[in-house]
């Protein structure tokens, strides 16, 4: 079989190589991949940003969807022919993550999925929602589960509340779509008026261009009649967190999931105390969260927003696209 790998910490050294098809052991399944979606972390992992002590070569990819091709001894959850999607953290099954082992993720430190076949723990996969293609389902394990966990596991979002989503990447567009079907009012931000037009088509109630309005927190607050939004999904980090807090009502939630702007921020403690809000952080979610989300997807029929699909042989171009600020997800088709 073929797989993509790097033999040194450098995304430019990505190479397509022949490798033996792996065999599933007890409680493991062999999955024939249909599609793999990319996340910015895949690139960071290949560049050694998550440490440089992993076994080389590294196979990238944290999000895969395909069909069970063989099962190992004692497998109970799946049979050959089932359509499955990988779990980002295959040992984190429910509740809050408690140990380092539970938080281990595919595509560093665990082997990635950018290959024709991979072996997964049977516990580390979920059934693919039947209405989604492999290309669509491959976008779920990180971006969609992160959006779901932020809104429903952390913020306990309710219908009628107001949610602010930042930018038009994979996590934010899922959050917009999921929040809308759950009855929220959504304010979306973007650096581009053209993209804001597209998020309105996806259901955003209000939009703000954060380049034209560097004080977008105050603009968002004004859009709620001065009260503030209930929940902000912050993908930018850095000083944008101040704007997120400015946008949020007393007692509201800011969930920081990303660092697209900067990995550091400072907060004025007194106004933050008086605001009595919560800043949460989050790293994707559990299998239980994924399965709950899939039930919601089945009933709402949300279709993931895909910026562009690439052929398996064009994986290098797909990685380059990560730097261009995609609108939604980038997907590599493993089978044509
Ligand atoms: N903690 C977790 O569990 C978790 C899970 C997934 C992702 N993440 C992190 O969350 C972030 C977003 O992930 P993603 O997959 O959605 O990324 P993505 O698809 O690459 O998102 C890119 C988009 O983000 C927007 N953006 C870029 N810089 C921004 C800024 N300074 N302020 C506001 N928006 C900005 C841009 O939208 P516009 O062009 O419309 O402005 C850009 O198109 C990344 O840092 C990623 O590493 C964390």
- Based on DSSP secondary structure assignment, what is the total number of beta strands? 15
Radius of gyration: 20 Å
Contiguous helical run count: 11
Say which molecules are bound, naming each kind only once: NADP nicotinamide-adenine-dinucleotide phosphate
Sequence of secondary-structure elements: EEEHEEHEEHHEHEHEHEHEHEHEHE
Roughly what percent helix? 25-40%
Short account of what is shown:
By secondary structure, this protein is of the alpha/beta class. The protein has eleven helices and 15 strands. Strands 3, 4, 5, 6, 7, 14 and 15 form a seven-stranded mixed β-sheet that branches.
Description:
28% of the residues lie in helices and 25% in strands. The chain has 336 residues and is of the alpha/beta class. Bound molecules: NADP nicotinamide-adenine-dinucleotide phosphate (NAP). Residues 39-41, 142-143, 146, 166-172, 190-192, 195, 210, 235-236, 240, 257-261, 282-284, 325-326 line the site of NADP nicotinamide-adenine-dinucleotide phosphate.
List keywords for this structure.
336 residues; alpha/beta; 11 helices; binds NADP nicotinamide-adenine-dinucleotide phosphate; single chain
Write the SSE topology:
Layout: E1 2-5, E2 15-18, E3 28-38, H1 40-46, E4 63-71, E5 83-86, H2 100-103, E6 117-121, E7 125-127, H3 134-137, H4 140-154, E8 162-166, H5 170-181, E9 185-190, H6 193-201, E10 206-209, H7 216-223, E11 229-234, H8 240-247, E12 248-256, H9 269-275, E13 278-281, H10 287-300, E14 306-311, H11 315-321, E15 329-333
Parallel strand pairs: 8-9, 8-11, 9-10, 11-12, 12-13, 14-15
Antiparallel strand pairs: 1-2, 3-4, 3-6, 3-15, 4-5, 5-7
Bound molecules: NADP nicotinamide-adenine-dinucleotide phosphate.
Residues 39-41, 142-143, 146, 166-172, 190-192, 195, 210, 235-236, 240, 257-261, 282-284, 325-326 line the site of NADP nicotinamide-adenine-dinucleotide phosphate.
């Amino acid at each position: 079989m073929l797989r993509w790998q790097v033999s040194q910490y450098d995304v430019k050294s990505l190479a397509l190589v022949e490798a033996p098809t792996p065999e599933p052991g007890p409680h493991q399944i062999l999955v024939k991949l249909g599609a793999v979606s990319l996340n910015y972390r895949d690139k960071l992992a290949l560049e050694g940003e998550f440490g440089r002590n992993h076994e080389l070569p590294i196979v990238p990819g944290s999000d895969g969807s395909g069909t069970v091709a063989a099962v190992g001894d004692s497998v109970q959850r799946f049979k050959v022919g089932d359509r499955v999607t990988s779990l980002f953290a295959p040992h984190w099954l429910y509740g809050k993550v408690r140990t380092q082992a539970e938080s281990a993720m595919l595509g560093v430190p665990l082997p990635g999925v950018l290959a024709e076949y991979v072996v997964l723990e049977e516990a580390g996969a979920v059934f693919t929602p039947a209405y989604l293609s492999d290309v669509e389902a491959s976008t779920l394990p990180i971006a969609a589960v992160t959006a779901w966990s932020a809104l429903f596991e952390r913020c306990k979002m309710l219908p009628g509340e107001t949610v602010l989503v930042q930018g038009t990447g994979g996590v934010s567009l899922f959050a917009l779509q999921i929040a809308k079907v759950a009855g929220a009012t959504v304010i979306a931000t973007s650096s581009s008026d053209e993209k804001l037009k597209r998020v309105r088509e996806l259901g955003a109630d209000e939009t703000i261009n954060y380049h034209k309005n560097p004080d977008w927190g105050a603009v968002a607050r004004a859009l709620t009649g001065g009260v503030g939004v209930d929940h902000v999904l912050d993908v930018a980090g850095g000083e944008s967190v101040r704007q997120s807090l400015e946008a949020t009502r007393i007692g509201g939630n800011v969930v920081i999931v990303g660092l697209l702007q900067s990995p550091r921020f400072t907060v004025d403690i007194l106004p933050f105390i008086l605001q009595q809000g919560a800043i949460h952080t989050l790293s994707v979610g559990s299998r239980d969260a994924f399965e709950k989300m899939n039930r919601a997807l089945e009933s709402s029929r949300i279709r993931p927003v895909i910026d562009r699909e690439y052929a398996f042989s064009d994986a290098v171009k797909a990685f380059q696209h990560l730097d261009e600020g995609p609108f939604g997800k980038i997907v590599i088709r493993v089978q044509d």
